[in-house]
């Protein structure tokens, strides 16, 4: 299954009022949160095509990780 494309592009979400790069950054954040490697890689590829640099992509991952850690801590408390 790992060699088969997921084909889960969110075509129905294309009618929004934000830039395509911002939309892809949000999608990347969600993919990181749920841990879908195929989605993460797909969104990173689109972001790189849109000239979003590696540091920005890493910052998105960092912010999502912090939010996830806070969420997990609050569930424990």
Describe this structure in words.
The chain is built from three helices and no strands. The chain has helices at residues 20-34, 37-49, 54-76. Helix 1 (20-34) packs antiparallel against helix 2 and helix 1 (20-34) packs across helix 3 (54-76). Helices cover 66% and strands 0% of the residues. The chain has 77 residues and is mainly α. It starts with 19 loop residues before the first helix and ends with a helix. The chain is globular and about 40 Å long. The model has no long low-confidence stretch (mean pLDDT 88).
Write the topology of this structure.
Elements: H1 20-34, H2 37-49, H3 54-76
Helix pairs in contact: 1-2, 1-3
Brief digest:
With 77 residues, the protein is an all-alpha fold. It is 66% helix and 0% strand. The radius of gyration is 14 Å and the shape is globular.
Overview features:
mainly alpha, 0% strand
SS-based class: mainly alpha
Q: Report the C-alpha radius of gyration, rounded.
A: 14 Å
Output mean pLDDT: 88
**Given the structure, what is the number of helices?**
3
Reading the helices and strands in chain order gives HHH
Query: Uncertain regions: pLDDT < 50 for 5+ in a row?
Result: none
Helix fraction by DSSP (H/I, runs of at least 4): 55-70%
Beta-strand segment tally: 0
% residues in beta strands = under 5%
Amino- and carboxy-terminal Cα gap? 38 Å
Tell the overall outline. globular
Largest β-sheet summary = none
């Amino acid at each position: 299954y790992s060699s088969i494309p997921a084909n889960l592009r969110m075509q129905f979400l294309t009618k929004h009022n934000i830039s395509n790069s911002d939309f892809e950054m949000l999608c990347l954040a969600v993919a990181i949160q749920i841990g879908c490697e195929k989605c993460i890689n797909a969104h990173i590829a689109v972001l790189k095509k849109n000239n979003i640099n590696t540091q920005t992509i890493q910052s998105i991952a960092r912010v999502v990780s912090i939010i996830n850690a806070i969420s997990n801590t609050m569930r424990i408390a």
